[in-house]
Design brief:
Structural class: alpha/beta
CATH class of the largest domain: Alpha Beta
Number of domains: 2
Shape: globular
Distance between the termini: 13 Å
CATH superfamily of the largest domain: Medium-chain alcohol dehydrogenases, catalytic domain
Number of helices: 12
CATH topology of the largest domain: Quinone Oxidoreductase, Chain A, domain 1
Largest sheet: 7 strands, mixed
CATH architecture of the largest domain: Alpha-Beta Complex
Length: 347
């Protein structure tokens, strides 16, 4: 098969022929139809993930058709159109048994623990636990994006923060994950305020339904907090840091009204200092969100089926597999909150 590979961290990836995968006993092989290009793929390529072995094929957001099935798979068969969470659970550890496969102690992650979806075929493990059936009518790019950024945002807002219609949501950082949170918040009936240093990102947030935007470039923390209070005098019920910086997390937490809930989705390069005085004094909840187990996808898919959530609207560029090396390198050099790129394999 053709796949995008790198033999050294930070060395330019190349498209070449490599052996096609075979299914593990509880796994499947999927012919990739589309796959998202995510900043997490860049971090893996740069060597920021110690679980990657070389040579490596990145890619973790995908949709495709099953072409081979392991002997122990019972719920899925050849020909099924599927996606999968980027955190694939084992289905057998205590976390999985309790319904929390997103923090499985034996988790696998395509594009990180094993070869991923920047390829014509990808192997996925523990299929009965991890695969999600996708209707043929759903846009391939939209289906691919459900595996990571939309699932993580949905779990954070719905299952962790319990965001309710009529509440005010603050989203700090409007890249792909942040804009997913904006779109989901709007779909749930929340009033959404978006914060970013990039005006184009805020224009996208407004297009996706944000009721207010705050351009934070050059502003002090106190000035941003003042702007949040002006935009939401009713108070922020739920905040999301979709970027993963000490300052953005602090803004999210300090913006909350008493008993508010902060969701941390963005990953930090180093452990941050958190304003725990506010957490204690206002009885705030600080919650993480790390993917979503496959069995929790129906609620997300229902929003999509009802037309209240359109992941495909986030896509601004579709590229072929042979354009991935250039796109990966360009993303590493670009810190702006650009539109989402999807790799279309035309399967």
């Amino acid at each position: 098969m053709r796949a995008v590979c790198f033999d050294e961290f930070s060395a330019r990836p190349v498209l070449r022929e490599v052996p096609s995968p075979s299914p593990s006993p509880r796994g499947v092989v999927v012919r990739v139809e589309a796959t998202g290009l995510c900043r997490s793929d860049v971090h893996g390529w740069l060597g920021h993930d110690d679980g990657i072995s070389l040579p490596h094929v990145p890619g973790h957001e995908l949709v495709g058709t099953i072409t081979a099935v392991g002997g122990d798979v019972r719920r899925f068969s050849v020909g099924g159109r599927v996606t999968t969470p980027f955190v694939c659970a084992c289905g057998r550890c205590p976390e999985c048994v309790s319904g929390n496969g997103q923090v499985c102690r034996n988790q696998t992650q395509p594009g990180f623990t094993h070869w991923g979806s920047f390829a014509e075929f990808v192997a996925l493990h523990d299929a009965d636990t991890n695969l999600v059936a996708v209707p043929e009518s759903l846009d391939a790019g939209a289906a691919a994006l459900l595996g990571c950024r939309f699932a993580t945002s949905y779990r954070g807002l719905v299952h962790q923060a319990r965001l309710a219609a009529g509440e005010t949501l603050l989203v700090v950082g409007c890249g792909g994950v942040g804009l997913s949170a904006v779109m989901i918040g709007v779909a749930l009936g929340a009033r959404v305020i978006a914060v970013d240093i990039d005006r184009d990102a805020l224009t996208r947030a407004a297009r996706f339904g944000a009721a207010g935007t705050i351009h934070s470039a050059g502003l002090s923390r106190s000035a941003v907090l003042d702007a949040v209070r002006d935009a939401a005098p009713e108070g922020i019920a739920v905040s999301v840091d979709a970027l993963g910086r000490e300052e953005t997390a602090a803004i999210g937490i300090l913006s909350l009204r008493p008993r508010g809930r902060h969701v941390q989705i963005g990953l930090f390069p180093t452990d941050p200092v958190i304003p725990m005085g506010a957490v204690i004094g206002k009885e705030l909840a600080v919650l993480g969100s790390h993917g979503m187990p496959a069995h929790d996808y129906p609620g997300l898919l229902d929003l999509v089926a009802a037309g209240r959530l359109r992941p495909q609207d986030l896509i601004e560029r579709r590229i072929p597999l042979d354009a991935v090396p250039d796109a990966l390198v360009a993303m590493a050099d670009d810190t702006s909150a650009g539109g989402v790129t999807v790799v279309d394999l035309g399967a």
